[in-house]
Design a protein that fits this description.
12% strand; single chain; 46% helix; five-stranded parallel beta sheet; globular; alpha/beta
């Protein structure tokens, strides 16, 4: 059972979610807003979850049907499997659980350490448990809201995992970094039923994108007032308490991290990895170097394509994120460059001038203006004004 679900999950993540979201984000602002405005206000968080899922899958057809059919077949067997599981015998009480939080040390507010001194960091696993009261929530999603199969299976799995965590750790709060997932809103509903606070930490860059719509957490920590307003315009729940929080490690002591022998005029923070993009960036490198500038290219630490990148980008100017920290990288560049990246926001906070690539990404540049990209509210230069 676990192996089958893992296979489906991996397929969904690699060939399903990422491709669909990339396709969705090509919709311009007007198209996205019109679609969002056409949706009714949800009655509760279960319907909110289903609407978010519908939005994310709005450009799919066959693959959506395939996953729904497979999921409806698997679900009864999963429920039977979980029903045979017993409550954990050993209780380990804690104040808060940090569940698969991306870059936790970067996004976790210091105030939370004082509020919840006793904590545990947990990774998602296959410790599942369901009580009869939980089945009522699942059946409500099925019979009242006609929850699609694949969403229902994912929600049931995560709810079962949350139930296990609640029974084993008796937490006051569960914290995640997962505002993109439709299930996160349904899990807020579940937490509410069990007197557990559901907290989310923003991570990565955000702009007006329907994939981020209909969020609801009891607390949602965001980097800037701009992001709060953006989520609210995307129909975030009025019951979400937004807290403006600049993560401590966003503030960099640039004098401490700067390496004079490693200084460069521009560091390009990659956000795309197609052959077309690398060809364009290769042309930018050539033009900047001919003008006497130095440049480095820094790939994303997790999402990258070194094999393709090495075909177009000289190895000696690639900055390895595994050996050079982001603090050193930002401190050692005179300008941060990208089309969209949360690193640009870090540069702004630390008084490093930023450059937006409007040459390689002409269409995206115009689209990001409409989509309320935060950098357009900050001082910036255009690459087209430099080369």
């Amino acid at each position: 059972m676990s192996k089958l679900i893992n296979i489906l999950g991996q397929y969904q993540a690699k060939l399903f979610t990422l491709n669909i979201i990339a396709k969705n984000r090509k919709d311009n602002f007007a198209v996205q807003k019109e679609f969002l405005d056409s949706l009714k206000e949800p009655k509760d968080d279960l319907e909110r979850m289903i609407l978010k899922n519908r939005i994310q899958l709005r450009h799919t057809s066959f693959i959506k049907v395939f996953f729904n059919i497979i999921s409806y077949i698997i679900l009864p067997f999963f429920l039977l499997y979980v029903s045979l599981r017993r409550k954990p015998k050993k209780i380990e009480k804690t104040d808060i659980l940090y569940l698969d939080c991306v870059n936790l040390n970067e996004v976790k507010p210091v105030a939370l350490e004082e509020e919840f001194p006793d904590y545990k960091i947990i990774s998602y696993n296959h410790n599942f448990l369901l009580l009869r009261s939980d089945l009522k929530i699942i059946f409500k999603a099925i019979f009242k809201y006609k929850c699609p199969g694949w969403l229902l299976l994912r929600f049931t799995m995560k709810l079962s995992f949350y139930r296990y965590l609640i029974e084993k750790y008796h937490p006051k709060s569960i914290a995640i970094t997962n505002e993109l997932s439709p299930t996160s809103t349904g899990l807020t509903f579940f937490c509410e039923q069990n007197n557990v606070e559901h907290i989310n930490f923003m991570h990565g860059e955000k702009f007006y994108s329907l994939e981020e719509s209909f969020v609801h957490f009891h607390r949602f920590y965001v980097f800037d007032e701009h992001y709060k307003n953006n989520f609210l315009s995307l129909k975030a729940s009025d019951n979400t308490l937004f807290i403006i929080h600049t993560p401590p490690n966003f503030i960099i002591n640039t004098d401490r991290y700067r390496k004079e022998d490693n200084m460069t005029d521009f560091t390009y923070y990659l956000s795309g990895y197609s052959e077309e993009e690398f060809i364009g960036i290769s042309n930018i490198i050539e033009k900047l170097q001919k003008s006497g500038y130095t440049i480095k290219i820094r790939p994303h630490p997790r999402f990258n394509n070194y094999k393709l990148m090495n075909k177009f980008i000289p190895e000696e100017i690639i900055e390895d994120p595994n050996t050079i920290s982001i603090e050193e990288s930002i401190s050692s560049c005179r300008h941060g460059m990208s089309v969209y990246s949360s690193v640009l926001y870090k540069c702004v906070i630390n008084n490093i001038p930023i450059v937006i690539d409007d040459i390689n990404y002409k269409e995206e540049f115009e689209s990001l203006k409409d989509k309320k990209y935060i950098i357009f509210s900050k001082p910036f230069q255009l690459l087209s004004d430099i080369i």
